[in-house]
């Protein structure tokens, strides 16, 4: 049975349709997680933390597992803001979550701006981290957007 945590409790309390999927507890790439769950890698999304050089709240970019985030496109989606990629240590410190478990769903009440790559809208269901290593959540893209107050934009470059 997949673990229960703050994310699964929040989703259940809000009546959001979702499924929790257990994964090995070690850090997996998005592509490894998709392979483990036997799902289309195009439906697996990862959360990237970007920081503002001038300070201010970090930004969460949610992109397909097989893609890289385009920082300039992410900045444009937020009104032309300059951004840089957070290091693993910075991402963990800023979010309070381990890399491999950083999730916009776990940070809903923390004031992060979230931008989801518009490719998510072409899927009925997408998979994102459940806020801890070893847990992924599948839900509709619209549920993710509503819960996180996210914008959508083309912010991914397929590698």
Describe the structure.
The protein has 159 residues and is α+β, with helices and mostly antiparallel strands. It has a single domain (6-158), classed as YbaK/aminoacyl-tRNA synthetase-associated domain (YbaK protein, Alpha-Beta Complex). The protein is built from five helices and ten strands, in the order αβαβββαβαβββαββ. It has helices at 6-13, 30-37, 71-77, 88-95, 141-148, and strands at 19-22, 45-51, 59-64, 67-69, 84-85, 113-117, 126-129, 135-139, 151-153, 156-158. Strands 5-2-3-6-9 form a five-stranded mixed sheet, covered by helices on one side. A three-stranded antiparallel sheet has the order 1-8-7. A two-stranded antiparallel sheet has the order 4-10. A hairpin with a 7-residue loop joins strand 2 and strand 3. The longest helix has 8 residues, at 6-13.
